[in-house]
Amino acid sequence: MAIGLGIWAQLAIMALATHPATTSAEASRAGLRRLLPLLGVAVVLGLVFALVVLVPVVVLGVSGFDFARAIAAQGNPALMPPMPPGAGLFVILYGLTAFILAFWVMARLMLTYAVVLNERRGLGAIRRSITLTRGMTWRLIGVTILFVILVFVTTAAAQGVTAIAFRLILGSGHQALVIGLASLVGSIVSAGFMTLAYVFIARLYVAAAGVPVVEAAEVTEDGSPTL
Fold it and tell me: Which of 15, 69, 80, 107 is the most buried (most CB within 10 A)?
């Protein structure tokens, strides 16, 4: 339920940013209408991601890696079972390759949600996003990395400062409450940055699609744009 509400809110924000003449009510309805198609696309992408993660697990299993002992070690390196050399090398190379490709995939699929929202596409939104982001891959990767760093630093700073302030106000005897309040502030800061990210993606879609905003929206009988 929470995931669905989050995606609906994201779609509504993107609808407002894509078509400035759209009202909040229209944006909410547009997000609700496109929620199920987007969830379908998200499920497919999630399955692909799961398969990518599953590959090294299968390789380790075939090589005879002791998963039961690894789980029992609870992250303690001294208790971890040895990894077969061949499988270990594969996992390292596979992980590095997947990590690098993840940035490319993230950049090329950045407009998928916007396409699902505005072009009434389902799985075809994936190919459409790749087409729209052609020639922008490295710039989008750079922007994404800088954005992640900015969000991490700002959120950590906000949590640290508020934790100190709440500890001074409430005293050292309310540690759990201090941590909870600091985490809440961090979540609010992070949510603000994510809202900016949704707006950026929506405006990037308008620029990449090369369609004027007025033409990109459907028009109702009274002449007001809708989604």
Answer: 15
Task: Provide the residue ranges of all domains of the chain, joining segments of one domain with +.
Answer: 31-133, 135-208
Could you tell me if 107 and 140 are in contact, meaning their C-beta atoms sit under 8 angstroms apart?
yes
Burial of 46 (0-12, 13-18, 19+ CB in 10 A): exposed
Distance CA 110, CA 102 (A): 12
What is the per-residue pLDDT across 123-141, written as a single tens digit (0 to 9) for each?
A: 999 999 999 999 999 999 9
Identity of the amino acid at 34:
R
Scanning the chain, the segments in alpha helix (DSSP H) are 2-18, 24-33, 35-62, 67-73, 85-108, 112-119, 124-132, 137-170, 175-209, 213-216
For the segment 44-91, what is each residue's pLDDT rounded down to a tens digit? 999 999 999 999 999 888 888 888 888 887 777 777 888 888 888 899
Dihedral sign for Cα 12, 39, 5, 132, please: negative
One-letter amino acid identity for 158? Answer: A
Secondary structure class of 200 (helix, strand, coil): helix
Q: Which residues contact 100 (CB under 8 A, 6 or more apart)?
A: none
Within a 10 A sphere around the Cβ of 227, how many other Cβ atoms? 23
Handedness of CA 5, 186, 45, 107 (dihedral sign): positive
Buried b (16+ CB within 10 A) or exposed e, 195-224: eebbeebbebbbebbeeeeeebbeeeeeee
Q: Which two tokens stand for residue 196?
A: 């900016």
3-state secondary structure of 218: strand
